[in-house]
Amino acid sequence: MNNFQLPNLPLPSPLVGSEIGSFTEFTVTQRMPNIARRVIKENKFTTEINQNLEKLAAELPNGYLQPLKNDTGADFHDWEKYLEPYKNQRWVDVPWFFAETYFYRLILNITNYFQHGEWQGVDPFLLQKEQGLEAAIDAIISLCTQVQQWLNESKKAGKPSKSSLIALLYFALWGNRVDLSLWSAFEDNRSNFDIQTQLNNILVDDSFAVSKLLAKSENNRIDFVVDNAGFELICDLCLVDFLLGSGFANQVYLHLKPHPTFVSDAMIKDVYATKDFLAAGSHPDVKSFVQRLSKNLDSGKLILTEDYCWTSPLPFWQIPQSLKDELAKSNLIVVKGDANYRRLLGDVYWDYTTNFADIVAYLPAPMLALRTLKSEVAAGLKAEVLEELAILDPQWLTNGQWGVIQLVDLGI
Ligand SMILES: O=P(O)(O)OC[C@@]1(O)O[C@H](CO)[C@@H](O)[C@@H]1O
Questions:
Q1: Is the minimum distance from the CB of 227 to ligand 1 under 6 angstroms?
Q2: What InterPro entries has UniProt attached to this entry (predicted)?
Q3: pTM of the entire predicted model
Q4: Which of 15, 162, 246, 374 is the S-S candidate for 211 at Cβ 3.0 to 4.6 Å?
Q5: Is residue 258 part of a domain?
Q6: Per-residue pLDDT tens digits for 207-240
Q7: With a 6 A CB cut-off, is 312 part of the ligand 1 pocket?
Q8: How far apart are CA 403 and CA 269, in angstroms?
């Protein structure tokens, strides 16, 4: 295990909502209030709960962080510690990742998610997660058919196909475009896109290096730090299906969220809900995908696990030692999505050309980031690419049109 416990570079300042004109400001002062108001619209909570949600929405642009009442959540005392340095500060003045993560935890506090009673365990974002799946059914069928074909080819060849693996990495990457905190399920069906045309929008592509790393051994354990439910989760489950079915991996762990957050982030219950949704379909390739998924879950080849670390506001280099020790058993840690990428980098203003491995030098195993850019954090990009992007697409950092497949393998 490498001996770095932190990025081996001095940390820049964090993104904050008070940065005038930034996407961060837009998120804290406009997007997050809208997300809180959508929770009111999409649920049938009591008047008191809705008034408190509206109060939260109204205080975000200029107001102060409200305390967390003890809602018996397992992470309540941890949150008391997290909140200490930011008490009585404005939402726009605290680090953005803290503000956003706390915002979603506060929503559960207000809706009594953890407390015994009518609303215990009610996912405030359930409707959008369900709509997300229904909107993507055509893409799901074509992906399951493709995976079936790739598995058959690998079996016939007697060895796992690197090109099929790479193609599924692209699907898992672009599945991340569909994140419901940014787009509603119906606003624009972003699951229908042609992978080939997307290759030009990958700013760093280490997919071939990933295929070489996994081809080195047949007993790989691969750990996914999962991001969104819906179509992205299905892309991830198809990648997992191929990894296990082709022999690239003999065990896969999915690290999921212990409670609803970031609107569409996936929990263990969402994996089973997705399996049930697919099982209700009639397409033969989808049905055989579901059968393989069930078999992998029942046999322990696919493990679903959750930890409150994944919903904490801490940067990845502060994950508990016990989790670090667990991840040290992995041959490859796959970190999905933009919010997790922000955690990897600590959600600070790195120069975009900073060496990615110099920052993410603290993980105990090779790590692959699959991320579509939806926030003003980046690293590992070439100066000439930045020059081109500035002209080609000034919104490249936040519009979800660009992606990275970044591998850090320190030969641990
Ligand atoms: O982790 P995901 O689902 O890819 O993206 C989530 C997220 O990065 O998207 C929003 C737009 O930046 C942010 O508010 C939030 O952090």
A1: yes
A2: ARMT-1-like_metal-bd_sf, ARMT1, ARMT1-like_metal-bd
A3: 0.94
A4: 162
A5: yes
A6: 999 999 999 987 899 999 999 999 999 999 999 9
A7: no
A8: 28
